[in-house]
Write a structure and sequence with these properties.
CATH architecture: 2-Layer Sandwich
CATH topology: Nucleotidyltransferase, domain 5
Radius of gyration: 16 Å
Number of strands: 6
Distance between the termini: 17 Å
Strand content: 15-25%
Structural class: alpha/beta
CATH superfamily: Ribonuclease H-like superfamily/Ribonuclease H
Length: 185
């Protein structure tokens, strides 16, 4: 399952999730019919980030409480492996919301497209992070509906399939090794 969040910023303590988007991936196929998108009522508002994701405090999207959004997301997630770009950020934001709701942390196995690319790349191997846009350029992935949670989850799913194709073709790494390593992000 590919995941993305849109947030009010990058501060794990003070910023909040505005939207969670996810799309299923099974047997090297993206399951668009198996998608999830939920908007969250904004307790914290940052007008500067509206320029990026377009989510307004008084927007027309149907919004639920943070707790309800997390419950619905966990139901959708079930036991799926999470694939995201910079997984640690999205999962930290989700886990902070889960803790505010009185829960623990999500223990799902996780993969990060940035990490996988760095393991496969022969160039710029020591560059610390790649943006989703940079990896889309490298792997020729179209950036449709960029900076929406569901749109970025779909882009990440396409990128993941391109990475796994390259990975399988080159037989560079064992995918289970990537999951085990990423689980500790």
């Amino acid at each position: 399952m590919s995941l993305d969040t849109e947030t009010t910023g990058f501060d794990f303590e003070n910023d909040r999730i505005l939207c969670i988007g996810a799309v299923g991936i099974r047997n090297n196929k993206i399951l668009v019919s198996d998608s999830f998108e939920i908007y969250i009522k904004q307790e914290v508002f940052n007008k500067e980030t509206v320029k990026i994701h377009g989510i307004r405090k008084d927007g027309k999207e149907v919004k639920v409480s943070e707790e309800e959004a997390i419950i619905q997301f966990l139901d959708y997630l079930s036991d799926a492996v999470i694939v995201a770009h910079h997984t640690k950020f999205d999962m930290t934001m989700i886990n902070k919301a889960l803790r505010r709701a009185g829960g623990g942390t999500v223990r799902s196995r996780q993969l990060d497209t940035n990490y996988i690319h760095k393991k496969l790349s022969t160039e710029d191997r020591f560059k610390k992070t790649y943006t989703l846009d940079e990896l889309c350029e490298i792997y020729n992935v179209k950036k449709h509906d960029r900076h929406t949670a569901l749109g970025d989850a779909l882009i990440t799913a396409y990128l993941f399939l391109k990475l796994t194709y390259k990975y399988k073709k080159n037989n560079v790494l064992n995918l289970d090794d990537l999951i085990k390593t990423n689980y500790q992000l």
